[in-house]
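Recap from last week: sequence in, structure out.
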Amino acid sequence: MEIKTSNRINQIDSSEIRKIFDLAGKLKNPKNLSIGQPDFPVPDVVKNALIQAVYDNKNSYTQTQGILPLREKLSQQWLINGIDIKPENILISAGVASILYLLFDVLFNSGDEILIIEPYFLVYESLSVFHNLKVTCIPENFDEKYIENLLSRTNFKPKVILFSSPSNPTGRIIMKEQIVLLGKIAEKHDSLIIADEIYSAFDYDKKFCAAASVIPERTISLGGFSKSHAMTGLRVGYIGVHEKLTVILQKMSALQQYSIVCSPTPSQWAALVALDHPLSIELDIFKKRRDRVVELLKGRVNFPFPDGAFYVFPEIPIDSRDFIKKAIEAELLIVPGYIFTKNSKTVRISYAQREDLLEEGLKIFIEILESVK
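Predicted C-alpha cells:
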C-alpha cells in the first residue's frame, strides 16, 4: 500500500538537533555540546509543587487559556517591568514550540511575508515553509542604515517580524535601539512583532530589553520555563499580548481547544511556584561558563558575542557538514550552522554542560579548527 502524505509535510524533515541527540546515544563517550537545555535539575521546590498538585488531584483539564493564578502571576511579573499585559490576554500552552505553531496557524495565509532575524531558531524556518510564507531575513547586527534601505524596497511588506532574544543560536540580545528600528517597519507596514524571549533569564550583562516595553501595542511576547528552570519535559510556555491584540489570543485559544487542549495541569501549578524562585546561583555558573568559552575561542575564531542564552556560534573555515563529520569522529557533538542560517560555515556550541566536559569538548573543537585552516 502506498501512503501519500501531504505536500507541505513532505517539506519538513526531522530536526537535525534531534538527529544529533539520537547519535549521542550510540557513541560510547561523547562530549555533547549540542544540548539545548540546562544541565541543572528542576529545583526541588518546583518538583515538590508538581508532586503535590498530582496528589491534590489537580490532574484534570484546565480552562483552555491556563490556570488563572499562573496568568495573574505572569501579568504581575510583566507589570514589574513596565509591561501591561492582563491575565485575560495571556495563554498558557505546552511550550513555546506549540505556541509558535498555534500563532502561525492563526496569523498567516499562504503567500504572506515574514521578516526573520538571522541566524534564527530552526523552527521559524520550518513553520514558514509549512505555511508557504515568503521569508525575508535580516542579520542580527542590523542598524538604521540597513533598515532604511529595507524600507525603501517596493516589494517588501511583512505581516510579522519574528526574532529570539537572547538568540538561539548566537546568544546575542537585540538592543533597545534595534527594537525601535523594527518598530519603524511595523508602523509602516502595519506589522506585528513576535518576540521569542524564552532565554530572557540568561541575561548575563543586564542588556535584555523586552520588545513589549518598547512597542507594546504591536508585540506578541513569548516565554516559558524550559530554559529558566530546566522544565523542558514539563511543557509550560506562555504568550502575552496587549489588549488591542486580544483577538489573536481568542483565536489561538479556540485552536488550542481542538489540538493541544491545555498545558499539563500539574506542570502549570509547578510553574506558578517556579516564578517565585529565580535561579541566581545557576545563572552565575552559566555566566562563568560563557566567559570561559569566550576566553578560549577569542582570537581563534570569529563569533557574535554571546550576551545571553547558553550558546556560541563560531564561524569555521569549511562547510559545517564536513566539520561535523570530523567532530563526530572525535566523539564531539555540536550542531551544524546551516539549520540556523544560510551561512553553512558556522556551528552552534552549547555550554549548558559541566565544566570538565566543556573544556574537553572545546579542546577537540579547537584541534579540528586548527587542522582545517
